[in-house]
Amino acid sequence: MLSKKQKKWIEEKRGHGELSNYKPWIKISDISSSGRSHRVFGHKTRRTHHLMSDLELATFLILEWSPNVTDIREQFPLQYEDTQDLATLIKVKHPSIRGELHIMTSDFYVITSARSQNQFALQAKYSKDLNNPRVIEKLEIERRYWQSKDIPWQIVTEKDIPLEVQNNIKWLYPESDSEIDADFYSKINFYAEQILKNPNNSTIGLCKEIDNAYHSELGTSLNDLRILLAQRFFTFDLRIDFRKLKCRDLRINQSESWNVISEEILYVSNQ
Asked: What pTM, to 2 d.p., does this model score?
């Protein structure tokens, strides 16, 4: 049987809705010892996401960064009748708390715009936890659950997310939804030209030179470039730590920003 608390959560429509209307099954306030939990605003969903670990945060940021992902639903509940049946089928104990049925969740249920795979589910687990037989039993229930729904599911560990990628996205994410006014667009050509003229300079070094040349406060140009990168006017391989970027590592994002950047800057490097 469901506990009174779980029945209340169902009445609150937790685990239902989409985008800003979605309510996660578990919120940070429901857990007495939340440890390394995080509340993070999602630009895609326009709501606060409840993440229960640093690994969940890293996974969320990568999903949020992906242009194909359209909706992220964390702490997504699985239908308890189905998980009960699956537990019985594979002869393992269904998760419970103090003898009461525990509704299982996947860390993320994700909707995408991709035709080939428009939805999938993820479970974020630290690799050390995969040595625990009981964890494996519960993961097998979850795997079979999503398999029965014909929805792809996989485990994500800290080994799947390079530290450089995590750090880059953490650096860029706060600016990914910044408003850009008409005056800022004039800076795009300027930075594109400087980047093409100085391929061997580090981006941080170039930004310092620009600040000095234009008597700007130190860090002004780097912040401008951060916004341009966060909003994908320029792109780079996220496996390269942003502190080690060279200008030659940056690319003009033709797919999203080509109409904003004038074509003549493409020829600057040949002049």
From this structure: 0.82
